[in-house]
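Q: I'm building a small set of examples for a reading group on sequence design. Run inverse folding on the following structure and report the sequence directly after it, with nothing in between.
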């Protein structure tokens, strides 16, 4: 497996890193040997003994293509340099020990140099740059579009393509003209032993609402600013907690925007910043309600972790999220075009502890039934075997 963003001890991390960590451990725990290549200078969280982590540094891509890119598009040359370093490392492993499958995300075009490799190449769809830019309202320049094409080249090199949700499969296939039937959906694993419910006290106290994730436009930060003051004014017993860093798109200080939007209720908004994985279970367990207002979210690990931890969840009715939340059964969905709908759904759960318990219990069951790491590992290996046969 290749990953440029990896869980680091003592720091927060994103969904791609969380997936790699969980998937590598799940594959190792079921008897497979796993090697992760990550960019040099990163410190990985502790993994199962069957997982080895190797650092790579970019290598100059040889040939005329490499020379031209270094001259004309140095940022793409740099990224292809990482891809070439990974290719060189995996080819050496293949020659010395044998290698069945390499899995690489489409993000950043990590597989762009992997042409005609002798092992199975799987490209997994996570969050392509064209979609991130669209959601964050970033107008693509010609150089940015060259980055999009870098990711398309990586996808074209794959012998198999997987996706974590039907939503991301549909988005990528529509954009690039790929047949959806060629993409296999395998859900993300959730460490249901690490993320689990804790006993909740029956005593009266504040109702804690949690948002976890990077603060950026695509994660619905402006839905939060549109309704947070009215929410806290209408429910004096509610507290709003934000766990996660600011992505920095456009140089916005989103934490400051939320504080300003909360007005005289800002003292009931708490910012925890980015947190290490070991700290997350306690944060979820303290929350009564998990709020995820993303404009689109292919497969949000924070939602899975919250559901596994016994939170009642309120999420936007968009791709990825509405594949996980069955409205009224294991959570509530709201219309992202109407922040008042989010306000109403949150208010309903704040006022109804019994409903929170019912939805939370159903959410935990869904994670146990559909996202157990052993089951996801088995599905993944089944696909891998078709490539290495």
């Amino acid at each position: 497996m290749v990953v440029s963003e990896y869980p680091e001890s003592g720091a927060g991390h994103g969904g791609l890193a969380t997936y790699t960590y969980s998937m590598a451990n799940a594959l190792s725990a079921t008897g497979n040997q796993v090697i992760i290549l990550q960019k040099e200078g990163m410190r990985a969280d502790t993994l199962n003994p069957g997982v080895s982590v190797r650092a790579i540094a970019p290598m100059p891509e040889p040939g005329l293509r490499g020379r031209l890119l270094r001259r004309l598009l140095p940022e793409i040359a740099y990224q292809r340099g990482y891809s070439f370093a990974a290719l060189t490392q995996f080819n050496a492993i293949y020659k010395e020990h044998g290698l069945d499958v390499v899995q690489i995300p489409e993000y950043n075009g990590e597989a762009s140099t992997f042409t005609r490799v002798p092992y199975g190449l799987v490209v997994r769809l996570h969050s392509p740059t064209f979609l991130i830019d669209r959601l964050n309202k970033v107008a693509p320049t010609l150089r940015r579009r060259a980055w999009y094409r870098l990711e398309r080249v990586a996808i074209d090199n794959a012998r198999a393509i997987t996706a974590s949700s039907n939503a991301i499969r549909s988005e990528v296939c529509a954009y690039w003209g790929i047949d959806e039937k060629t993409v296999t959906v395998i859900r993300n694993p959730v460490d249901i032993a690490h993320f689990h419910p804790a006993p909740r006290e029956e005593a009266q106290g504040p109702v804690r609402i949690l948002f976890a994730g990077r603060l950026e436009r695509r994660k619905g930060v402006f839905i939060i600013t549109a309704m947070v003051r009215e929410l806290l004014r209408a429910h004096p017993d509610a507290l709003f907690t934000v766990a996660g860093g600011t992505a920095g798109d456009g140089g916005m200080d989103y934490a400051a925007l939320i504080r300003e939007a909360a007005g005289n209720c800002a003292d009931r908004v708490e910012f925890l910043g980015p947190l290490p994985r070991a700290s997350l279970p306690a944060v979820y367990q303290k929350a009564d309600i998990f709020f995820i207002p993303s404009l689109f979210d292919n497969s949000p690990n924070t939602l899975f972790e919250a559901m596994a931890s016994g939170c009642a969840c309120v999420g936007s009715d968009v791709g990825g999220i509405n594949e996980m939340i069955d409205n009224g059964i294991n959570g509530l969905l709201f219309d992202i075009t109407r922040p008042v709908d989010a306000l109403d759904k949150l208010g309903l759960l704040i006022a109804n502890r019994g409903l929170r318990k019912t939805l939370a219990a159903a959410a935990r069951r869904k994670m146990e039934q559909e996202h157990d790491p052993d089951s996801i590992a088995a599905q993944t290996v089944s696909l891998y075997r078709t490539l290495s046969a």
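The radius of gyration is 21 Å.
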